[in-house]
Amino acid sequence: MPEWVDGEGRGPSRRSLLRTAGALLPGLVLGVGGTVGTASAASAPPAAGGTEPRGTFSSPGYSWATTTSATTGVVFTLTGPDGGPLPGRRVRFSLSSFHTARASLWFEVSEGRKSPGRYGYLDLDTDAGGTVVLDPWLRHGAVPTTASGVRPVLRAQLVGSEAILATSHLSVSESRSTR
């Protein structure tokens, strides 16, 4: 089930509340624990030897014409250090420059809503093969991305992590009719 977060005109978003709480947490841990070990354990770098998961998109870039109705073929795969799939992991997908490019690209979620909402990011779980197909949620509009003056990038990261696992360029272009 998708999870979305966006604070459009509804007061503080969960993202801003979590960011604030996350910024305060190290101070609280230091104030309560009073030991340097607590703080250093929370910020310890990953162990050597490649223990971090890896993510890839099925293409380094995706492009659609304004006349097509769907985005297709956008697949993300999450693997462990051994190359095996990582099922059941929550991944956040986000669109860079969303507020500028929102007429061109967005995630659309309609579950539990009367009308679909447009969002700049979306959290989804990997399936048994460690993949997520974004086609049911990623949408594009009739406005070419060049009209907004930005070149949007689709990013993937594990929820709770700041590390970007994979990126892919996105574009929507005007289709030219041939007469």
Feature tags:
3-stranded antiparallel β-sheet, 179 residues, 20% helix, 5-stranded mixed β-sheet, 11 strands, alpha+beta
Question: Your description of this structure?
Answer:
A hairpin with a 7-residue loop joins strand 5 (105-109) and strand 6. The radius of gyration is 19 Å and the shape is globular. With 179 residues, the protein is α+β, with helices and mostly antiparallel strands. It contains 4 helices and 11 strands; from the N terminus they run H-H-E-E-E-E-H-E-E-E-E-E-H-E-E.
Structural class, please? alpha+beta
> How large a portion of the residues is in β-strands, by DSSP E?
25-35%
Largest sheet: 5 strands, mixed
What Rg, in angstroms, do the CA atoms define?
Answer: 19 Å
Secondary structure: helix percent: 10-25%
Number of strands: 11
Distance between the termini: 45 Å
Mean pLDDT, all residues: 75
How many helical elements? 4
Shape: globular
User: Strands of the largest sheet, in order across it?
Assistant: 2-11-10-4-7
What is the N-to-C succession of helices and strands?
HHEEEEHEEEEEHEE
Put the structure in a nutshell.
This protein is an alpha+beta fold and 179 residues long. The protein has four helices and eleven strands, in the order ααββββαβββββαββ.
